[in-house]
Predict the structure.
Amino acid sequence: MSDARMPDASVVRLSGLAKTFALPSGETMTAVSGIDLELRRGEFVSLIGPSGCGKSTLLRLIGDLTHPSAGVVTVNDKPAHQARIDRDYGMVFQAPVLFEWRTIEENVRLPLELTTWERGAREARVREMLELVELTEFARHHPYQLSGGMQQRVAIARALTFSPSILLMDEPFGALDEMTRERMNSEVLRIWEQTGITVVFVTHSIPEAVFLSSRVVVMSARPGRITRVVEIDLPRPRGVETRESRRYFEMVTEVREALRGGEGRADEGLASLERAEGEGLTG
Amino acid sequence: MQRSPEAAAPRRGLLGRAGIYLLFLLGLFLLWEGLKFIGGDPWRYFGLEWRPPLKITTVNDQSLPHVWDIVETMIGPYRRNADQSLFVYLVLKALYTWREAAIGFVLGGLLGVSLAAAFVHSQLLERAFVPYVVASQTIPIVALAPMIVFFFGNNVMSVVIIATYLTFFPVTIAMIRGLRSPDPRALELMRSYAASRRTILWKLRLPASLPYLFTALKITATASIVGAIIGEGPGAIQNGLGWSIIEFNQQYVTNPSKLWGAIFVASLLGVSFYALVRLVELRVLRGRPEASAG
C-alpha cells in the first residue's frame, strides 16, 4: 500500500538538535530545539509549519550551511560537515539563483567544474540532466530568457549533476503560481522516482506536502519543535487522481489539524526570528 | 531577478544615431558662431564687414576663435614649412599619450581589483587600509605629480604611475561593491558544493562584479588620459599631447586656434578610449540582461 520503494537504511540522523541565534540586541533566540529525526534512504520528507518555526534552519543544519548549538547531524554515517565536503548534497532554494552570465547548460555544468570530471563526461552529464528536466532545447539560452518555472527546473538539474544522495529543497515552488506549482510537483515526483534520491522538502503548503511526501514532519514555532510526523500512505505513482482522491483529503485534514495543534505561540517574536534566520544565511 | 527580453527597447539604426551626433555638432557650431555673430568681434569677409550689435567681453576672437579658423589651423602645417598638418601631428602625440594612459589604466585596474579582492576577503585589511586609499585621493594630482617625478625620474614611468594613481581608486571602490554583489544564496550554493574561497572568487564573485568593473573602467578611461596629460609636464615627456598643450598655451596670445585644436584632439582621445571600453563591455557582458544599458 505505501511506498513502492522499500526504505532500507538511515541516510540522515538528527539527535538532540538545537540552534540558537544571537540577536543584535544581545538576546539569544532559539530557532529549533529538541529535534530527533531519522530519514530513510529514498524517502521524500516534507518539513511544514508556520513561518518562523525553524524549518529552513533545520534544512540548513542538515546541509551543514549552519552549525548546531547542540546535538549531532549524521549524514550517510558521517558528520554533516564531511558529507558536504564529499558533495552529498544538492540544494534548491526558493529563487532559482542561476548565474545570469552563464547559459543554461553552463549553469547546470557549474558543480562539475569544481570536480576533476573529464570534459566529455561533464558534457554528457549536463545533457542527461537537461533531458531529465526536459529543457534540452534551451541549453544555450540565458536564464532571463526562461520563465520562473523553467528556471527552477534548471536549478533542480544543477542540484542533481553531482548525483548527490540528498536533495535539500527550501520552498522551491513558493514563488510560482498554482498551476505551475502543481506541474512542478509532478515533475519533482517523476525525477525523485527516476533517481531514487532522498528529498528533504520545506514548504508552507499543506496540499503540496501531502501530495509529494512519504512523511510530513509537522513543526511548531517558538521554539521550533517537531510536533508530529504524519505518514502519507497514498499509493504511488501519484497524479491528478491522487489530488482528487478521498484519502488525499483525509491526509490534508490530518496535517492541517496537526499544524493547528502546534500553532500555539507562532506569531510572537516572529519578525525577530526571521531576521535571525536571514543573518544565518549570510554568515 | 527576472527581466523579460522584450523589455529592451529596439535599437536605433547606426545611421540614425550618427545623424543625431551630426545634428548635435551642427547645433554646437551654430551656438558658437551665433554668439560671435551677436556679441563678438567684427566679421570681415569678402570686403564686407559685420559689426555685432552687442559686446560680450568673453566672446572675442582671442578666447573663441572662429570654427573655420581652428579648422584652417588644424589642416595647415604644425609649424612653418613643416610637411605634417597640425591635426596629424596632434593625433600622433595623442597616440603616444594614449599609450602611457593605457598602461596606467591596465595597471590601475589590476591594482584596484587586487585591493578590492583583498578587502572583501579580510575585514582586518579593509578596516586598516581603506582610509588610506580614500586619503590618497584627496591629494591633488598637481601636488603629487612633481613628487612622483622626483622618485621615478623624468621618464615615461612617472607618467604611467600618475595614470595608474588616477585609475585604481574608482576600480577599488566599485569592485568592493561588485565582489560583494552575489546573492547570499549563491554563496550558500557554492558552499554546498564545498567550493574553496578561490573557486568562489573565480566562478562567482568576479563574474558577478563585471558590470561594476566596467562602470569604473569607463570613468577611469578618461581619468587615466587626464593623468597622463598632466604628468607629461613635470615628467618632461615631450612626445605627448600634454607637452603640446603646454607649448600652445604659451602661444595662445598669437595663435589661440592651436590650443583649441589640441583641446579638440584631447577630447577626441578621451571619447575614443571611452568608446573602446564600452565596446569591450558590450562584448564581455553579452547575454546578460543589463548589458544593453549604458
Summary: Chain A touches chain B through 30 residues (CB under 8 Å). Residues 7 and 65 of chain A are 26 Å apart (CA to CA). Confidence is low (pLDDT under 50) at residues 1-7, 262-273, 278-283 of chain A.
